[in-house]
């Protein structure tokens, strides 16, 4: 059984996930664009993995968009995304909040019909290892 560790940006919320991920989706829907402030959300899903909140669980706030299955959990101090258990029987882990390596490649890109227009140019842009001068 795999174990993964992660935290929010400020380090208040820390957690351990025990178990394997079933899928890893890059979601381009408008809801994910709004709640990430980016062109897509990268989320890992598991029906069997269990989460153990190591610290800061009292700082986790969850939001469920009315009339949808869209939800987000986040640290109420720094605002960064943390795992969500809002859909019964499903653990959703934002890939970027993990500190341990993810050994799963993305399963698929979903809701690509909503893809941000600027994504088409990403592969053609200059690349820098650090912030350019």
TrEMBL record:
InterPro entries: CENP-V/GFA, Mss4-like_sf. It comes from the Bacteria. The keyword Lyase applies. PROSITE patterns: CENP_V_GFA (PS51891). Residues 4-119 form the CENP-V/GFA domain. SUPFAM superfamilies: Mss4-like. One of its GO terms (molecular function) is metal ion binding. The keyword Cytoplasm does not apply. Keywords: Lyase, Metal-binding, Zinc. Belongs to the Gfa family. This is Aldehyde-activating protein.
């Amino acid at each position: 059984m795999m174990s993964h560790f992660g935290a929010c940006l400020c380090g208040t919320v820390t957690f351990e996930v025990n178990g394997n991920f079933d899928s890893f989706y890059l979601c381009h829907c408008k809801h994910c664009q709004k709640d990430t402030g980016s062109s897509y959300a990268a989320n890992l899903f598991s029906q069997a993995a269990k989460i153990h909140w190591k610290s800061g669980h009292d700082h986790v706030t969850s939001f469920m968009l009315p009339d949808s299955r869209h939800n987000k959990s986040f640290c109420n101090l720094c605002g960064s995304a943390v795992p969500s258990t809002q859909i019964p029987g499903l653990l959703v882990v934002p890939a970027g909040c993990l500190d341990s390596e993810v050994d799963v490649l993305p399963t698929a890109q979903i809701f690509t019909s909503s893809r941000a227009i600027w994504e088409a140019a990403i592969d053609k842009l200059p690349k820098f290892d650090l912030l350019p001068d």
